[in-house]
Amino acid sequence: xxxxxxxxxxxxxxxxxxxxxxxxxxxxxxxxxxxxxxxxxxxxxxxxxxxxxxxxxxxxxxxxxxxxxxxxxxxxxxxxxxxxxxxxxxxxxxxxxxxxxx
Length: 102
Description:
The protein is of the alpha+beta class. The protein has one domain. It is built from 4 helices and 4 strands; from the N terminus they run ααβαβαββ. It is globular. This is Putative HNH nuclease YajD. Belongs to the HNH nuclease family. It holds the Pfam family HNH.
């Protein structure tokens, strides 16, 4: 992830279009994780957003590319594809990697 991508991602995740899409999709799934059925927290992009597709609403705002997941399932998704989340870290509800501290 580059600094350019990080800036674009922050801008996207703060946009009215994303917030409206995210909230409507979350509500349509009754706030439940689509993988385990527990309380969901994150609207996850199945096709991950990157510098090449962040401006493509067919990827970023299409309900077919979204799923509600709990934090555990979201972290498992990123663990599986990223060779691991660094120890002591997790993804927050906005998809940001955060340090948990001790």
